[in-house]
């Protein structure tokens, strides 16, 4: 069953198959960098776009990355690193794209590493060192919904809204590789005041980023 996923997610694929681990946290930190609008920061790179396909078979999974993804990279080195990490076959296609074939177990390991990175980024945000107003973060099992419990007075008027993107983007990447179709891959982030328990803001990704790009 084929799924079309974003080029930004493809970067996490290569990192995960190279057994780097923890990249979800790095992605969150980049996404959370201060800027005039939380929806605008890194939106072009992070918004899911067509060009990558995942074909999940019974025993093996095939993932095709477009030629544009490899611009400026040493393709031989990238392929060699992927093979070291369990990719069993790599095919260079006529259009410049590259198809990776891997056992389900390798894909499973990749998903475990992506989940670990996502959880690490969540814990870092909960620590409140970067976003002082964030006191706690709750999330659904499938990472489709997050609730940021914050000090509303400190949250409003600050850059702490970027904490929402800090959890939403890695969650979207994870869900894409977990087989969620692109058109159904939505992550909802709610901001809840710690004192009153009231949800005072809700943001849905990638809709927020796409709206800013119009």
> Helix-strand pattern, N to C?
EHHHEEHEEHEEHHEEH
Rounded to an integer, what's the Rg over CA atoms?
18 Å
Tally of DSSP helical segments: 8
**Count of β-strands:** 9
When the domains are counted, the total is 1
Care to describe what's here?
The chain is α+β, with helices and mostly antiparallel strands and 214 residues long. The chain has one domain (2-213). 39% of the residues lie in helices and 24% in strands. The protein is built from 8 helices and 9 strands. The protein has helices at residues 7-17, 23-31, 43-46, 75-84, 104-126, 152-155, 162-177, 207-213; strands spanning 2-5, 52-56, 60-65, 89-92, 98-103, 134-139, 145-150, 187-193, 199-205. The chain has a 5-stranded antiparallel β-sheet. Helix 1 (7-17) crosses helix 5, helix 2 packs across helix 5 and helix 5 packs antiparallel against helix 7 (162-177). The longest helix is centred in the middle third of the chain and has 23 residues, at 104-126. The two termini are 31 Å apart. Residues 26-48 have a biased composition (Low complexity).
């Amino acid at each position: 069953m084929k799924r079309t996923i974003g080029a930004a997610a493809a970067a996490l694929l290569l990192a995960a198959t190279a057994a780097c681990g923890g990249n979800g946290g790095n992605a969150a930190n980049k996404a959370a960098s201060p800027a005039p609008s939380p929806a605008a920061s890194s939106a072009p790179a992070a918004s899911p776009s067509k060009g990558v396909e995942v074909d999940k078979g019974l025993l093996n999974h095939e993932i095709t990355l477009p030629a544009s993804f490899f611009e400026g990279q040493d393709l031989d080195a990238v392929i060699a690193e992927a093979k070291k990490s369990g990719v069993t076959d790599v095919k260079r296609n006529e259009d410049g794209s590259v198809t990776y074939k891997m056992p389900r177990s390798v894909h499973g390991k990749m998903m475990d590493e992506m989940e670990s990175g996502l959880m690490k980024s969540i814990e870092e945000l909960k620590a409140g060192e970067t976003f002082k107003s964030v006191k706690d973060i709750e999330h659904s099992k499938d990472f489709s919904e997050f609730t940021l419990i914050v000090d509303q007075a400190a949250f409003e008027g600050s850059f702490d809204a970027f904490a929402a993107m800090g959890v939403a983007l890695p969650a979207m990447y994870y869900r894409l590789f977990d087989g969620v179709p692109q058109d159904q891959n939505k992550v909802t982030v709610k901001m809840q005041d710690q004192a009153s328990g009231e949800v005072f803001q809700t943001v849905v990704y990638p809709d927020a980023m796409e709206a800013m790009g119009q």
